[in-house]
Amino acid sequence: MFDKLFAAQQKAEEIKKRLDTVSVFGEVENGAIKITATANKAITGVSIDEEFFKNADREEVEELLLVAINKALASAEQVSATEMQSATQDMFGGLGGMFGQ
User: Domain extents for the chain?
Assistant: First the structure.
């Protein structure tokens, strides 16, 4: 029983490490603002098109940055949830044998 729980814990750690290597993106205004993040929800890059930046006011840039960041984080959440769901199915499938199923 403890072996299976330990294996599940190791699997969770492997998923977390893998999510650190997966990049997700959020962009607005046809790519004028692009946000890059890991699937663990760490922002790793911000890119603002120079022409867009010259012609935009501060409030517009701030508002669009928030939208792009939220898009990137939503993508990260989706990737993370998919990975965790897969791991959970594997884990419960393996634990089922412990309970005679």
Answer: 16-90
